[in-house]
Amino acid sequence: MGMRAKISASLKDAMKAKDAERLSTLRLINAAIKDRDIATRAEDGEHAEGVGDDVILGILGKMVKQRQESARAYEEGGRLELAEKELSEIKVIEDFLPKQLDEEESAAAVDAAIAEVGAGSIRDMGKVMGVLKGKYTGQMDFGRVGPLVKERLS
Fold first, then answer.
1. Residue 6's closest CA among 57, 49, 80, 40?
2. Which of 24, 35, 69, 92 is deepest in the core (most CB within 10 A)?
């Protein structure tokens, strides 16, 4: 079952269960995916059937990151009820993301990507990151992995 089908099924379940919070978040996910579909169609000039699961995983990862930043800002501003709303949205979005790699798994993935590319210097960082993004989109935070790759190549 593809990502779109999973999200649609969850949307229907949330409607039947009258779960307003989950339904709201699922509608935001659908809107973000449709926005990307439209942007892709405009770029390609074709009537494509939409973006693939890998792009959807990227969209979901970006949505989680945005909500984490918003929650942090709300907490710093003393708006705890808004921070809790953002955190509950993160939980719904993460239901569709694959299991995140822990520190050790991320380090092993970085080492494997460096070996695969044959990277020897910091100049090869883009190639290594490309391999990691191809294999682990949605499973690792590339903002945290970047410094690790840089350290290993230095």
1. 57
2. 92
pTM of the model: 0.74
Q: Pseudo-torsion of CA 73, 142, 39, 60, nearest 10°?
A: -60
The pLDDT of 1-5, averaged and rounded, is: 84
90 and 68 Cβ atoms separated by less than 8 Å: yes
In this structure, what CATH number is given to the domain that contains residue 107?
1.10.10.410
Q: Which domain holds residue 8?
A: 3-94
Nearest-10 crossing angle of helices 53-76, 80-94: 160
Q: What is the pLDDT of residue 154?
A: 82
Distance separating alpha carbons of residues 76 and 3, to the nearest angstrom: 34
Kindly report the CATH number assigned to the domain that includes residue 26: 1.10.1510.10
Long-range contacts of 60-65 (CB under 8 A, 24+ apart): 60/29, 60/93, 60/96, 60/97, 60/138, 61/97, 61/137, 61/138, 63/28, 63/29, 63/32, 63/93, 64/90, 64/93, 64/94, 64/97, 65/141, 65/143
For residues 31 and 65, membership in a common domain is answered with yes
Q: For residue 133, what are the CA distances in angstroms to 38, 70, 79, 90?
A: 23, 25, 35, 21
Give mean pLDDT, residues 126-144. 83
